[in-house]
């Protein structure tokens, strides 16, 4: 079994320098994305197809009546059980041996189901034009610098983090460090916790948070949509065993349009709590 790796983000050490954002832009050759002034220290409202990680900023009144300035490195969580992978009708999204979740642009058809079903809102579609001027779309998001990992390097954001708010290593080691850190900061931050949500099988980007996830705009209990589980884990394998490929493709298109689009999501039992 391949060794699982995790990016550990300790928000209590982050000083808001945004070096992680710059490193990500530089390594992945992502274009600048001018933004309107947001009225805070935060430069971008959310991640996008051209900005794969964002430094978020929250002013929070703590339990002692004081004011805390909370920063958080925000990017793809790389879920162990990723909704985007489940709903992709072209199998364009897959897991790597490092635990990262990546998109194959050669297979992506820009349907948008991954964007609509991500419980963290970290996938976006980007518009492109071919040599004839025809427009098409491809999904984009953080890759956890899988190309760097394959060369024995760490993610660009991790290597540039000067206060040591991010680390990358084997899962068990990172979890142990997270637990130790939470115990160290509990006196100052009574609500300190580890964010590694079970509803998506855990994540390969885990956080040490000073406050509850919702304070940072993160979903408290994110889950893979029920329709995605039924389709990927039950209906699709059974269907492939019973019918031909062409028929299965037609069935797949029907199910995808019925359950994975925004209208279909309105019928989810849990309502699909989405924040980022």
TrEMBL record:
<feature type="binding site">
    <location>
        <position position="145"/>
    </location>
    <ligand>
        <name>[4Fe-4S] cluster 2</name>
    </ligand>
</feature>
<feature type="binding site">
    <location>
        <position position="88"/>
    </location>
    <ligand>
        <name>[4Fe-4S] cluster 4</name>
    </ligand>
</feature>
<protein>
    <submittedName>
        <fullName>4Fe-4S ferredoxin</fullName>
    </submittedName>
</protein>
<feature type="binding site">
    <location>
        <position position="161"/>
    </location>
    <ligand>
        <name>[4Fe-4S] cluster 1</name>
    </ligand>
</feature>
<feature type="binding site">
    <location>
        <position position="84"/>
    </location>
    <ligand>
        <name>[4Fe-4S] cluster 3</name>
    </ligand>
</feature>
<keyword id="KW-0677">Repeat</keyword>
<feature type="binding site">
    <location>
        <position position="20"/>
    </location>
    <ligand>
        <name>[4Fe-4S] cluster 1</name>
    </ligand>
</feature>
<dbReference type="InterPro" id="IPR014603">
    <property type="entry name" value="Formate_DH_Fe-S_su"/>
</dbReference>
<feature type="binding site">
    <location>
        <position position="24"/>
    </location>
    <ligand>
        <name>[4Fe-4S] cluster 2</name>
    </ligand>
</feature>
<keyword id="KW-0004">4Fe-4S</keyword>
<dbReference type="GO" id="GO:0045333">
    <property type="term" value="P:cellular respiration"/>
</dbReference>
<feature type="binding site">
    <location>
        <position position="157"/>
    </location>
    <ligand>
        <name>[4Fe-4S] cluster 2</name>
    </ligand>
</feature>
<feature type="binding site">
    <location>
        <position position="108"/>
    </location>
    <ligand>
        <name>[4Fe-4S] cluster 4</name>
    </ligand>
</feature>
<feature type="domain" description="4Fe-4S ferredoxin-type">
    <location>
        <begin position="5"/>
        <end position="35"/>
    </location>
</feature>
<feature type="binding site">
    <location>
        <position position="14"/>
    </location>
    <ligand>
        <name>[4Fe-4S] cluster 1</name>
    </ligand>
</feature>
<dbReference type="InterPro" id="IPR017900">
    <property type="entry name" value="4Fe4S_Fe_S_CS"/>
</dbReference>
<dbReference type="GO" id="GO:0051539">
    <property type="term" value="F:4 iron, 4 sulfur cluster binding"/>
</dbReference>
<dbReference type="GO" id="GO:0015944">
    <property type="term" value="P:formate oxidation"/>
</dbReference>
<feature type="binding site">
    <location>
        <position position="114"/>
    </location>
    <ligand>
        <name>[4Fe-4S] cluster 4</name>
    </ligand>
</feature>
<feature type="binding site">
    <location>
        <position position="142"/>
    </location>
    <ligand>
        <name>[4Fe-4S] cluster 2</name>
    </ligand>
</feature>
<feature type="binding site">
    <location>
        <position position="111"/>
    </location>
    <ligand>
        <name>[4Fe-4S] cluster 4</name>
    </ligand>
</feature>
<dbReference type="GO" id="GO:0046872">
    <property type="term" value="F:metal ion binding"/>
</dbReference>
<feature type="domain" description="4Fe-4S ferredoxin-type">
    <location>
        <begin position="67"/>
        <end position="98"/>
    </location>
</feature>
<keyword id="KW-0408">Iron</keyword>
<feature type="binding site">
    <location>
        <position position="76"/>
    </location>
    <ligand>
        <name>[4Fe-4S] cluster 3</name>
    </ligand>
</feature>
<dbReference type="Pfam" id="PF13247">
    <property type="entry name" value="Fer4_11"/>
</dbReference>
<dbReference type="InterPro" id="IPR051555">
    <property type="entry name" value="FDH_Electron_Transfer_Unit"/>
</dbReference>
<dbReference type="GO" id="GO:0030313">
    <property type="term" value="C:cell envelope"/>
</dbReference>
<feature type="binding site">
    <location>
        <position position="118"/>
    </location>
    <ligand>
        <name>[4Fe-4S] cluster 3</name>
    </ligand>
</feature>
<keyword id="KW-0479">Metal-binding</keyword>
<feature type="binding site">
    <location>
        <position position="17"/>
    </location>
    <ligand>
        <name>[4Fe-4S] cluster 1</name>
    </ligand>
</feature>
<keyword id="KW-0411">Iron-sulfur</keyword>
<feature type="domain" description="4Fe-4S ferredoxin-type">
    <location>
        <begin position="99"/>
        <end position="128"/>
    </location>
</feature>
<dbReference type="InterPro" id="IPR017896">
    <property type="entry name" value="4Fe4S_Fe-S-bd"/>
</dbReference>
<feature type="binding site">
    <location>
        <position position="79"/>
    </location>
    <ligand>
        <name>[4Fe-4S] cluster 3</name>
    </ligand>
</feature>
């Amino acid at each position: 079994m391949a060794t699982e790796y995790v990016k550990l983000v300790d928000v209590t050490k982050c000083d808001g320098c945004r070096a992680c954002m710059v490193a990500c832009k530089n390594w992945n050759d992502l274009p600048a994305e001018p933004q309107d002034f947001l009225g805070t220290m935060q430069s971008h409202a959310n991640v996008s197809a051209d900005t794969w990680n964002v430094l978020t900023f929250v002013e929070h009144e703590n339990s002692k009546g004081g004011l805390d300035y909370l920063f958080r490195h925000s990017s793809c969580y790389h879920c162990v059980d990723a909704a985007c992978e489940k709903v992709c009708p072209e199998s364009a999204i897959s897991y790597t041996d490092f635990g990262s979740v990546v998109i194959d642009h050669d297979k992506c058809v820009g349907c948008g189901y991954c964007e609509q079903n991500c419980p963290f809102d970290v996938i976006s579609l980007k518009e492109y034009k071919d040599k004839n001027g025809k427009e098409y779309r491809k999904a984009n998001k953080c890759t956890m610098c899988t190309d760097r990992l394959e060369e024995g390097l760490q993610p660009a954001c991790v290597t540039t983090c000067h206060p040591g708010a991010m680390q990358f290593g084997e899962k068990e080691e990172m979890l142990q460090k997270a637990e130790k850190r939470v115990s160290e900061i509990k006196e100052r931050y009574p609500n300190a916790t580890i964010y590694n949500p079970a509803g998506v099988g855990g994540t390969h980007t885990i956080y040490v948070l000073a406050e509850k996830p919702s304070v940072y705009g993160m979903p408290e209990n994110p889950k893979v949509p029920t329709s995605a589980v039924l389709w990927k884990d039950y209906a699709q394998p059974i269907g492939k065993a019973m019918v031909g490929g062409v028929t299965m493709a037609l069935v797949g298109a029907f199910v995808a349009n019925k359950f994975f689009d925004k209208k279909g999501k309105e019928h989810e039992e849990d309502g699909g709590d989405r924040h980022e």
